[in-house]
Amino acid sequence: MTAEPNDDAQAVERALEAGRLLFAQQCDFLLSAAETGQLPETGLPEIAFAGRSNVGKSSLVNALTGRKTLARTSNTPGRTRLLNFFELGERLMLVDLPGYGYARAPKSDIKQWSGLTRRYLKGRAELRRVCLLIDARHGLKESDRAVMTELDTAAVSYQVILTKADKVRPTQLAEIIGATGRELAKHTAAHPEVPVTSAVKGDGIPELRAALAALAAPATED
Ligand code: GDP
User: Fold this and answer.
1) Ligand 1 in contact with 58 (CB < 6 A)?
2) Domain for residue 16, yes or no?
3) Does 198 sit in the ligand 1 pocket, CB within 6 Å?
4) How far is the CA of 60 from the centre of ligand 1 (A)?
5) Is residue 198 in some structural domain?
6) Disulfide engineering: 209 pairs with which of 19, 69, 118, 136, CB 3.0-4.6 Å?
7) Ligand 1 centre from 181 Cα, in Å?
8) Cβ of residue 99 lying under 6 Å from some atom of ligand 1
């Protein structure tokens, strides 16, 4: 049997609805981990968010969950070097990783990324995907490429997501999407699709919710 275009449209609708429902659930800050022994054992699938400092990571997590307090939690002084865990609807953990790549110290970018983050990325059985956020104005930078190579080596599945799309003109955005896609084709663990998002305008948020909901634990029947 061949799929009718109508079936495809319905599948997209269903996925968007599943994403909307999941991200409308309660989302609570669980804990901040400073060392491997503090990583929670929830048994839930995990999605980690990574990116250069100021890429818009907290804003994106807020836009996804529709809550403002989460960003504040992660950007609280003292918490920015920690792994911050949020539990979504008892089905998915969202893990905010420390930002990397301070402009003032480009050479030590990756070294600044703590050993804890690396150990988490390489050894976490629950980790389903890393969302690697890239500022749509700048595209991939050396520090991002270094992280991608590490994730390739560790065979950790990741997806590049463009942020702050509202700050870029459509022609420039198309160029960045094309260049990013071509580069991703050379990375073995990279997801081929590059979602384009704006936390400010809401662009791409329902689609990203849908993609992440597909990785969550199944909803339990009450
Ligand atoms: P983080 O350090 O990666 O958590 O970045 P933040 O979420 O704190 O965002 C850094 C800056 O970028 C803040 O001034 C945000 O208001 C801004 N920002 C984040 N997302 C967007 C977006 O989608 N559009 C625009 N125009 N600004 C954004």
Assistant:
1) yes
2) yes
3) yes
4) 8
5) yes
6) 19
7) 23
8) yes
Domain extent at residue 69 = 5-28+38-75+88-213
Model confidence pLDDT, tens digit, residues 189-203 = 999 999 999 999 999
Confidence bin at 110 (pLDDT 50/70/90): low
Q: What atom in ligand 1 is closest to the CA of residue 52?
A: 3
Ligand 1 mean position to 90 CA, how many Å?
27
Question: Tokens 């520090």 belong to which residue?
Answer: 143
User: Is 83 within the bounds of a domain?
Assistant: no
| CATH number where 151 lies | 3.40.50.300
How close is the Cα of 180 to the center of ligand 1, in Å? 20
Q: How many domains does the chain have?
A: 1
Cα separation, 154 vs 102, in Å, equals 24
**Hey, how many other C-beta atoms are within 10 angstroms of the C-beta on 112?**
16
Whose Cα sits closest to atom 24 in ligand 1? 164
In a domain, 82, yes or no: no
Tell me which DSSP letter residue 192 carries.
S
| Whether pTM exceeds 0.85 | yes
CA distances from 203 to 11, 199, 208, 220 (A): 20, 7, 10, 30
For 140-179, write each residue's pLDDT tens digit: 999 999 999 999 999 999 999 999 999 999 999 999 999 9
The yes-or-no verdict on residue 111 having pLDDT over 90 is: no
